[in-house]
Amino acid sequence: MKGNFNGREEVTKDDGSFSRRRFLNGFGGSGIFAGMMGAAGADEPPRDQRGKVIPGFEKTKQEPRVVTDWHPVSERKIKVGIAGYGLCKFGAAFYYQNHPNVEVVAATDLDPQRCAALAKAVGAKKTYPSCEEMIQDQSLEAIYIATDAPSHARLAIMALEHDKHVCSAVPAVFGFQAVDEAERLFRAVQQSGMKYMMNETSTFHADLYAKRVQYQSGALGKIIYSEGEYWHDGVGVLGSYNPKNGRIDEFGWRRALPPMWYPTHATAYYVSVTGGRFTEVSGLGTESAYPVYREAENQYENLFGTEIAMLKTKEGGISRMGVSWDMKDAHGEQGRVYGQKSHDQKIDGSRPPLPMGVEGGGHGGSHGQLTNDFIESILLDRRPIVDIGDALNMTLSGVIAHQSALKGGEWMRIPQYD
User: Fold this and answer.
1) Is residue 166, in this structure, part of any structural domain at all?
2) What's the total number of domains in the chain?
3) Using one digit for the tens of pLDDT, what is the confidence trace for 168-204?
4) How far, in Å, CA of 357 to CA of 248, rounded?
5) Which of 88, 121, 371, 395 could join 171 in a cystine, given CB atoms 3.0 to 4.6 angstroms apart?
């Protein structure tokens, strides 16, 4: 971890924990997708056709500690179903199959071959042709949704309505329907009484988590200014699930994706530090250099490859959050946090210990941490680290920022959920 904590509240990230699904320069067309979809087991990170690990999935050095640092909170095993084994094989990348308090009962993917591969990777004895069918399985207590982004909210709502705890990949809601989805998702969480967590990887980056501990201890005081950045070249042309043919190809949901529809790796650098809320936003965008953004059939009618947002916070501070798919020499999830007081070197901001077999994994060692937090939130009946309020604020602040950018930076209010 880099940074100067002597009188300044600055946070930056190791280059080793790059952003999810960074586009690999030098590839084009459909050739990249076949390489990326090569076989990978539960312990094998996804690789491109040159055999290199996709950024975000590099082996992350764990904090030095002995296994006895972790103590189980229960002997019970949560029966989990896992949905989704797409481009980066996220269904197997978060160590559910290794957690001592989890029994992975079922797996699903819309593609039969991917479904079988996921089941093998996580040790699931049952498979289902769709997440909707898996949700009906009464033996399951929790669902991990690692499907395409447009389906997250719909599947989460359905699972909650079937009395299942839900952990969802980011973002919580998506696109043109995001504001309406947010209302329905929030209501489903409240009415079900089940746990809902969004798997935001930046939340458990070592730098952000250390700042979270500092803030919660009162060491930083009010956060005057914060920044979050998610730079990931080429996302708008990267492969993704295409509902028209059921394949992962260049015409899927990521094609010409508005950057601020995928904002949470950046916005976590305020929300996950403080548990606070963005209240208003002004956004600006610049036209993407990639030709797909200028296609007549652009599915999102979006020209922006980079979007920057200025946001007001409930505690009276201000934040700058940026997402870009266009910058060749910038990559990763990173942020800076500045408070009224200096970082206190005496406060231990280490991440929690993990059980044997559950590694930190990709995205800066966040994968195992997120899974352990979700499972313990069920066992201990407590709020998960990224609950529904945090998830919706992180996501909607970007959605509204995109709306603002389309209006030349007009200040707009962000719907509030707590």
Assistant:
1) yes
2) 1
3) 999 999 999 999 999 999 999 999 999 999 999 999 9
4) 31
5) 395
